[in-house]
Amino acid sequence: MLTLAYLGPTGTYTEAAALAYCNWLEDTCGRKGKLVPYPSISQTLEALLQRTCDVAVIPIENSIQGSVTVSLDSFWEKERLQVQQALVLPIHHALISRGAGLEEITTVYSHPQALAQCQHWLEEQLSQVTLHSTNSTAEALQYLQDPQVGAIASERAAELYDLPILAHGINDHRDNCTRFWVVRGSKDGIELPQAPGPAYLSLAFSLPQNSPGALLNPLQVLANYGINMTRIESRPTKRLLGEYLFFVDVEAPKDEGILSEAIAALSEYTEILKIFGSYTVLAVGNSPLPE
User: Fold this and answer.
1) Are residues 49 and 183 in the same domain?
2) How many other β-carbons are positioned within 10 Å of the β-carbon of residue 289?
3) 20 to 30 A Cα–Cα from 253, which one of 36, 116, 148, 237?
4) Is 284 a member of any domain?
5) Is the C-alpha dihedral spanning 176, 12, 248, 199 positive or negative?
6) What pTM was computed for the model?
7) d(Cα 53, Cα 183) in Å, to the nearest integer?
8) What CA–CA distance (Å, rounded) separates 11 from 96?
9) Residue 141 belongs to what domain range?
């Protein structure tokens, strides 16, 4: 049985993504999975590196709030991680509370991404409340003993913990969705299928120096080899102020020879180059696939 680590506790959106992947895996190749929750993204990936699980599922990017920076930073800092599969999951937030109505709520807990995805709704409906961040949306539910406290999480989480919902669909954008990565160890030898569809490649690099054209050179390599870049984002190196890492997603060329040549050329213009893996995207529910 395949063991999957995920950002817990039970009831998070990451668990929903992990369950969807387990169901797809069982339907595809008959392989069953067992889910194990961890309290943080870093601990989830560390469990994978310590071989206490076979794969890990982490959130990587939201369509409204952008990248989950702790996931990117952890992926850069930890070695021997490989993306096996991407999943896109629709996100529908609810306000959960034991209070009788919105007028009773004085405090709201949730993951920072969920709070940000409901920012306008909170400003309109609960403008005077105090907001508090938690490690996950499901973790926020532990504060609901007080009827003046609300939590933003999924309707599924409310059902699992038998908690009342005060408001449905409170995210500011209807088409809110999150991309997750299913991650395995780069040297663990586990063979798993990928969903059908076009392949993408994720990588990251630092630059040898901050000089004119330093970023242009690696991007020009991708252009020269006809590789379409679908995403680029910078993150601080945590060494010097103004020094950055660059995370890049590209459409993986079908010709592996072209890809190998492009990566070799990229290494000439980067200080550190990390290849996170080639993968396809599995849409869950009514989630849109990337175009």
Assistant:
1) yes
2) 12
3) 237
4) no
5) negative
6) 0.90
7) 11
8) 13
9) 93-167
